[in-house]
Amino acid sequence: MNVTVRKFDAVIVGAGGAGLRAAIQLSEAGLKTAVLTKVFPTRSHTVAAQGGVAASLGNSEEDHWHWHMYDTVKGSDWLGDQDAIEFMCRKANECVIELEHYGMPFDRLDNGRIYQRPFGGHMSNFGEKPVRRSCAAADRTGHAMLHAMYQRNVKANTQFFVEWMALDLIRDAEGEVLGVTAMEMETGEIYAFHAKATIFATGGSGRIYYSSTNAFINTGDGVGMAARAGSPLEDMEFWQFHPTGVAGAGVLITEGVRGEGGILRNSQGERFMERYAPNAKDLASRDVVSRAMVTEINEGRGCGPNKDYVLLDITHLPPETIMKRLPGIHEIAVQFAGVDALKEPIPVVPTCHYQMGGIPTNYHGQVVVPGKRTQNEIVPGFYAAGECACASVHGANRLGTNSLLDLLVFGKSAGETAVEELKKTPKAHKELPADAFERTLERLNRLETQKGGANVHETRLAMQRTMQKHAGVFRFNDLLKEGVQKILDVQKDVQQTEIKDKSKVFNTARLEALELDNLIEVAVATMVSAEARKESRGAHVRDDAPDTPERPNGRDDANWLKHTLWYKENNRLEYKSVTLRPLTVETIALKKRAY
Amino acid sequence: MMTTRTLQFKIYRYDPDKDQKPYMQDVAVEVDSTDRKLLDALVKLKAVDDSIAFRRSCREGVCGSDALNINGRNGLACLTDLASFPDDKPIVLRPLPGLPIVRDLIVDMTQFFKQYHSIKPYLVNNDPPPERERLQSPEDREELNGLYECILCACCSTSCPSFWWNPDKFVGPAGLLAAYRFIADTRDQATNERLDNLEDPYRLFRCHTIMNCVDVCPKGLNPTKAIGKIKDMMVKRAI
């Protein structure tokens, strides 16, 4: 098989929010940049974000980045790195204002400023009471944002390679990253993008679960590529289950619904969140709300014929508010739940939504690995931003609206850092190693010649069911142990998947098999990391680490206040310490998390 | 008990590697009560025959990937209810009309995006950016409703006879809707240039208000109305 090599200063993999934001930096700096994307940029999953992007603009009431920082650290259950969190919260205003200048159609207040709504876990004055911090364009914030950033890239003449799937990372013997191999989907031809900077912005991997708000394309391609190339993955046991996915369909219903006044009710019509989070109630952090919902269902207070969901009620809100602020939700409820949300509550269940972990980076967007000198040594030429990366700002649980902020801030900072590095040390492309394409060619060749192998669809389903059963909202020691064995069995099937269709032109069977190679890395990393973490923290709550006076919420700071690093080779686990020291302010001290 | 139902399809198939010409394939797929949408059925179909090619991503009508011609009408597979199909007739699926076909249900959208790009789909404001947001009243912001929500699925442009005849010269409903989105934005300063860019016998004026675009838009948008407003502005500008 022939591999054509193309040279660029930088290659960005992925054209969702983080990729597009990084691309603006590189294109406007005049660097020769290729943006590879599996789908046309505006089809990336950022498009599905609804409720808003966090920034302490204070347009409706007093707010401060320091309060935002406090909420984010608390939301992360203290597993987030406080330097990166301070950086993100301080940069939020600038990044949101930039978007507005790009033309993003934010909703407006009467004084012409950006409209802001309350969201889960966002409070004023260090956890006192809910604050309006989420900057929104109706309930289509991600769509408005992604299109505005694509449009800005059109203006900047960014060079896109649309419907090109990156396959593997190219690293040389010194560990330096020199680009990626990729397939042009329309022809099936293989190329190498030889670059001085490689930025991964490939999004999340929510499709490892059976029930997910994520798009079909969210197959963890960057995470899988990084793992195969020897990079560790950080904190992969932490997955966010969004409280309100449409029961049965999995489609997201924004937390903005509760921000606008929506209420969760059980089969008795009770507003049950009052019992679990007396202060924040329905606007508690997502992990807290999801666990409360599952507890209600498990204790027999679920709704419907099988008592397997709860209700999201907005029937008490003025219809004008719903149609103005939540028009997309009204549409989704009709389409996917068959209810008119103006008149009836929406059936919802916690649904896999967001990957808190990912490729470890610092807050400059540079990928870091433990080395001889420090636990965060920079991998030359390699950057990551957005959901595929772990900076780590979300720690054990992400706050709503911090995902769009993460991709803006770290997309920009990865882009800026790459520009600086490229300008600082102008140099020729480092030579590609002799085995640069080996991993890719092996994978493709195996798929071509595999006989009597496993069906891709069935194998993926087996993975998704295993993850759903063994690493869900609540986790159990015995199920996790069993889950590790099961997912390793599925992995063996993934290594011998077989496709019937061997054609070249837009072969989606081959693409799905290649995507499954990435998904399984994420699934194994998740299960192995989750089994090993013997405490409850944020979204990772186990039966054998219950709430006790010595260990509130089951959190064990003495032993587990540390990041997991999973390596593909032998499923090895290492740990590194959490950065508790912020950039300029005092450490937000450890305490019990309650809402 | 899960109720199941067998759906009959006639699907446009074409793989340039092996097919001399396209053909319609008859296939049946069994769906159950958890399969609500046409896309669910297509995914089941692909599990059986992995060679069938179609685009899909968000499965909730916001990414615009899975636009198809469904029983002669353009729409998104993920927003089309299976319940809307009668049992006694096969469901006929074809790629979007008027664009070159890459394979099966996948069309080459180059021409569609070229037209979108031709209207300069980005905000133009040459004032130095202020420190904070540019102010816009809620009323002015409301002018963008019904415009900015476009998902670029191409259902509209590929149902438009004027676009079929002149895809290289007529901007088409999606591109014109985007053009008006920027004209209508109080923050944009390039209205005149935008109108100049469309002042041409083809680019704008090939719209003959057939309104297929309005009929098929899965987001309920009205490109014809936006086109009408641009035409009005052209006239006003001329006098």
Q: How would you describe the overall organization of this protein?
A:
The complex is a heterodimer of chains A (595) and B (239). Helices cover 34% and strands 21% of the residues of chain A. Chain A has 595 residues and is α/β, with parallel strands linked by helices. The longest helix of chain A is centred in the C-terminal third of the chain and has 25 residues, at 508-532. Helix content of chain B is 30%, strand content 15%. Chain B contains 8 helices and 7 strands, in the order ββαβββββααααααα. Chain B has helices spanning 38-48, 110-118, 138-142, 161-165, 172-183, 191-198, 212-216, 223-238, and strands at 4-13, 23-32, 67-70, 73-76, 91-94, 101-103, 106-107. In chain B, the strands form 2 sheets. Chain B has a 5-stranded mixed beta sheet, with helices on one face. A two-stranded antiparallel ribbon of chain B has the order 6-7. In chain B, α2 (110-118) runs parallel beside α5 (172-183) and α5 crosses α8. The N and C termini of chain B lie far apart (70 Å). Chains A and B meet through α3, α4, α10, α13 and α15 of A and α3 of B.
